[in-house]
Amino acid sequence: MTESLRGFKRLPDLPEGTYLIILAAAIYGLTIVLTKGALEQIPPFTLLCIQTASSVLVLWTIIIFQGIQVPLEWNTLKLSLIGLLEPGLSYVFAVFGLSLTTASNSTFINTTEPIVTIALSWLILRERINFPLIGLGLLACVGVAFISIPNATSIGQGSIWGDLLVCLSVLFASLYAVTAARSVQRLHLVALAAIQQSVALILFMIMLLGALFLGLESFEFVPAMWGSLLIAVTSGAFGYGLAFLLYLAAVRYLPASRLSLYLTLTPVFGVISAYLILGERLLVSQGLGGSLILLAVVSISRVPHE
Q1: Domains held by the chain: number
Q2: pLDDT in tens, 1-16
Q3: 35 Cβ neighbours under 8 A, 6+ residues apart
Q4: Does any domain span residue 68?
Q5: Are 181 and 251 in contact (CB under 8 A)?
Q6: Is the Cβ–Cβ distance between 179 and 67 less than 8 Å?
Q7: How far is the C-alpha of 196 from the C-alpha of 83, rounded, in Å?
Q8: What is the Cα–Cα distance from 254 to 257, expressed in whole angstroms?
Q9: Which domain, by its residues, includes 210?
Q10: Is residue 276 part of a domain?
Q11: Which of 39, 111, 131, 230 is most buried, judging by how many CB atoms fall within 10 Å of its CB?
Q12: Considering the domain boundaries, does residue 146 fall inside one?
């Protein structure tokens, strides 16, 4: 599978790894739409566990059938714990934060992730950050804000505690981005994805049990849920499994700061998927936001990096 992923680098005109991260963003965008549909019948933490378990099952199946080695040593354990950052704590704080604040607040805070990742890349990885990169990062953030918040009237109306939790979610996601850059050379990509998501799944299951015990979430299966369960399993296998592998493969070629800019394409693909699958209406502001993101992505692709 790794060799097939490397085949993308032979495509012309864009830096190595660019096609990998763009495809990952497309899958992430589609997964958001599928998750939105599944949430109509499956509670958040239950859905999170189903999707992650589906991905983990697929990844470990690949490991077994391909005979991929997963060394039982301290270094493997350390690499697996990175999964506590993302999807682990990042997703947990995102769910809790969204339950306490407005969707507009949450989306607006999430638009800052590229800039946070660029800052952490400079502080932790000592990546060389120039003004064009910062400017394009800000441009992409503005684009994400336009495409994700067509109605900004509810911004500022949520709970401050919910907003802080969403901020923590962004911080953990950015920390994972810079940490992953140091881990992809130490273990097979499939093994790395499997152990990190397995650790995240354990965290999600603990949170789900706590939510069920406290009465914060309940789940009762009825035959009408088969469709939503199928969507949950499929979106987990592709949106968490395949997209995660593509992201890790791209990390081998591109610095974390640039990867964060390419991932701003996710809401663009999400809006397009929502239009095609759910029949949602496209707004002028979303078209403007998508144009700004595309401008930032095309521009950063033409700026050489060391």
Answers
A1: 1
A2: 555 545 444 444 666 7
A3: 47, 51, 232, 235, 239
A4: yes
A5: yes
A6: no
A7: 4
A8: 8
A9: 13-301
A10: yes
A11: 111
A12: yes
